[in-house]
Design goal:
- Helix content is 6%, strand content 55%.
- The chain is built from 5 helices and 33 strands.
- It has helices at 3-21, 51-56, 62-66, 151-154, 443-446; strands at residues 47-50, 72-75, 83-86, 89-90, 95-98, 101-102, 121-128, 142-148, 161-171, 176-188, 191-202, 218-231, 234-250, 264-280, 289-304, 310-329, 332-349, 358-376, 381-399, 405-422, 425-436, 458-471, 474-493, 500-520, 524-537, 540-541, 556-563, 570-579, 596-606, 613-620, 635-636, 641-642, 651-659.
- It has a 22-stranded antiparallel beta barrel. Strands 1-7-8-5-6 form a 5-stranded mixed beta sheet.
- It starts with a helix and ends with a strand.
């Protein structure tokens, strides 16, 4: 019997025999299905993942976290190259925050922008499309908010101190191994501290044909310190997080050596984030304050493996704050505040012929003021309205864009109306705008392409119509949307005295829909969904060559099944994703992007009747399908071949977690 088949049978045996491991009844249920099921008030394409769903999926990268959510695709193959696509648009236009700290840096267009460690995430929330004024500056395609756990999330009621040890392994080709250590304690009744360390070593994986995909091996190292306090009306979180990703890939980590001349390079990405959140919530309807302050430093380096010579490097530092208050007046809630962010970039590239080797130092800042109100006009009508004002300033300090400046400001309104004619049924109509002035773009291109100082800011408008229905556990919801992004900024090659220039190159658009139906019981849930986004730029479909903007993704069907036995000591789930064929517009004679179906099985068990010892198992890509995710750079017209990496084949993931 082949090794992959043996691993599959072992995984299925674990899933089948699991009920024997937790036959004893216990009142300490690990998780209820309601906590991982999107409620009807959230439109399709918007989701809120909690810790239970993250643990159940055995998530180790972005694909594990997000690929089975409506409206989202994650492509790239190896974790170093994974990019998030929301309704077909790339995450470069998505506002990402971690514990309130913005993560705006884009370092290198051939690798991932969003670095997230799943192990200690408490929740992930996505609002797709330009939306509420509270979503932050520059949220053209939405806001992704990540919250991490604190000491009080891990301590049991009778504990003053505890430790967590976890070992995990993924079996596919070169296999991957992960170790997790965490210590947490109660320094006083209202003060807790958490320290974590995560190390992961992943080998080159096998695709669905059983072929080894090289080079895709990686090493991840993560650490976090978090101090949390709760004192009467005041509470706070002080967090410091460090992420370090290294590996040896080609110069373009998400592409094969299709030209035969690419040099293996040593890549390193780091992110250091320090954030502080203070909350003041006295017994007053007029006052509920929240302050977020943060500093994020993101950097990368790419050196040729054979000589050690620099290919490219960059470092971006972002410092900012957000101060807001929420006031209540009977049926009206109003959130208003100010936010500010200052960015500085140092970058250098030696990837081009020597006459075009370049460096840059740039600064940018954005000041915002906003208000968002929600009004329950009557039991049948709800109104939400908001307004943002954003003022951007961008300067080229030295290097290829020295002396250039780009300034812009704009108001961005939003309005939504919800009507509930009968109790289970709600209709919603929403319109919103978002604005992103000229700010620091990708580090690699910023050391190569020149600013003239004549750019317009990018503007987005988003129109949505939704309907939702929920009764006796049954639910159905659907959303149709249309979004425009005007004056999109990109790098344009000229090859003359300068390599190229940043320019407003045109307008992008997406039209699509998302829908889901399902049923929830006390310990079981099932749902089926579908989403489709037709993305275009200047009236032509997007394709994989539109790096930084987006790509075309086939109509996607998703199915979910969850079951928790009466003992409450286990959870089982099935996730399925069917992506239909999609026409590839990258060239007239390009083959269609082929469709595919992926099925994942997952389970976890509390082995000692509580959460002290937990076993987790997942079989991803159960039927070992060979496919290119539509979010992966696939077919190239010039070489008439597939130059991106195919997705991993079948993988068995196991983990054992002990808390004491």
């Amino acid at each position: 019997m082949s090794a992959p088949s043996s691993r599959l049978l072992s995984g299925l045996a674990l899933l089948a025999c699991a009920p024997l491991a937790h036959a004893a009844e216990s009142g300490d249920a690990a998780r209820t299905l309601d906590s991982i099921t999107v409620v009807a008030e959230r439109e399709p394409g918007n989701f809120d993942l909690d810790r239970g769903e993250i643990e159940l999926s055995q998530a180790s990268d972005l694909s594990d976290l997000l690929s089975n959510e409506s409206g989202v695709a994650v492509g790239g193959g190896s974790p170093v190259a994974q990019k998030i696509y929301v309704r077909g648009f790339e995450d470069t236009m998505l506002n990402v925050t971690i514990d309130g700290a913005q993560e705006p840096a884009e370092l290198y267009h051939h690798q991932t922008r969003v670095q997230i460690e799943p192990e200690f995430i408490k929740s992930i929330e996505l609002d797709a499309g330009a939306g509420a004024a509270t979503g932050g500056a520059g949220a053209l395609t939405g806001a992704l908010r990540v919250r991490t756990r604190d000491a009080f999330d891990l301590l049991r009621p009778d504990q003053d101190a505890g430790f967590l040890v976890k070992a995990a392994a993924g079996f596919n080709g070169g296999n991957s191994y992960k170790g997790v250590l965490a210590g947490y304690g109660r320094l006083s009744d209202g003060l807790g501290v958490l320290a974590t360390y995560v190390y992961q070593d992943g080998g080159d994986y096998d695709d669905g044909h059983g072929d080894r995909v090289k080079p895709t091996a990686y090493r991840h190292e993560r650490a976090q310190f978090k101090l949390s306090g709760l004192f009467d009306a005041h509470s706070f979180d002080l967090s410091a997080e460090h992420l370090d990703d290294t590996g040896t890939y080609y110069e373009r980590p998400h592409m094969t050596n299709f030209s035969g001349r690419f040099v293996l390079s040593d890549h390193q990405m780091r992110r250091d984030t320090v954030s502080y959140e203070h909350r003041y919530d006295p017994d007053s309807d007029a006052l509920n304050l929240r302050l977020n302050a943060y500093r994020t430093r993101s950097e990368y380096q790419n050196r040729r493996n054979t000589t050690g010579l620099l290919y490219s490097a960059g470092e971006q530092t972002s410092t900012g704050l957000d101060l807001r208050n929420t006031a209540l007046w009977q049926s009206l809630s109003l959130t208003y505040g100010l936010d500010y962010r200052s960015d500085r970039l140092h970058a250098r590239q030696q990837a081009t012929p020597p006459p075009f080797w370049g460096r840059t130092e740039q600064t940018a800042r954005v000041f915002g003021a906003y208000a968002q109100g929600d009004w329950d006009v009557s039991p049948q009508w709800k109104l939400s309205a908001g307004l943002r004002y954003d003022d951007y300033r961008h300067r080229g300090v030295s290097g290829v864009s020295a002396g250039a400046s780009n300034d812009a400001d704009k108001l961005s309104p939003n309005l939504s109306i919800a009507w509930t004619p009968i109790e289970p049924l709600t209709f919603r109509l929403a319109y919103s705008e978002a604005f992103r002035g000229v700010t620091i773009r990708e580090a690699f291109f910023s050391a190569l392409y020149t600013h003239r100082g004549d750019l317009e800011g990018e503007r987005a408008d988003n129109l949505e119509f939704g309907v939702s229905w929920e009764r006796n556990g049954y639910f159905a919801r659907a959303t149709a949307f249309r979004q425009n992004i005007e004056h999109y900024i990109s790098a344009v090659y000229s090859g003359q005295t300068a390599w190229g220039y940043w320019e407003n190159i045109g307008d992008a658009k997406v039209e699509g829909y998302e829908a889901e139906i399902g049923k929830r019981w006390q310990r079981m849930g099932v749902s089926v969904g579908v989403w489709q986004s037709d993305n275009s730029f200047e009236d032509r479909p997007l394709n994989d060559a539109d790096l930084g903007l987006g790509t075309s993704i086939g109509r996607t069907w998703t199915a979910r099944y969850d079951w928790q036995p009466a003992s409450g000591q286990a959870n089982y789930a099935v996730r399925a994703r069917l992506v239909e064929d999609e026409r590839n517009s990258i060239a007239a004679d390009a083959p269609d992007k082929p469709g595919y179906t992926v099925v994942d099985l997952m389970a976890n068990w509390n082995l000692l009747g509580d959460d002290r010892l937990k076993l987790g198992a997942a079989v991803n890509n159960l039927f070992d399908r060979f496919y290119y995710d539509h979010g992966t750079y696939g077919y190239q017209a010039g070489s008439k071949s597939y130059i991106g990496f195919p997705s991993p084949g079948r993988e068995l993931s196991l983990s054992l977690t002990y808390r004491f």
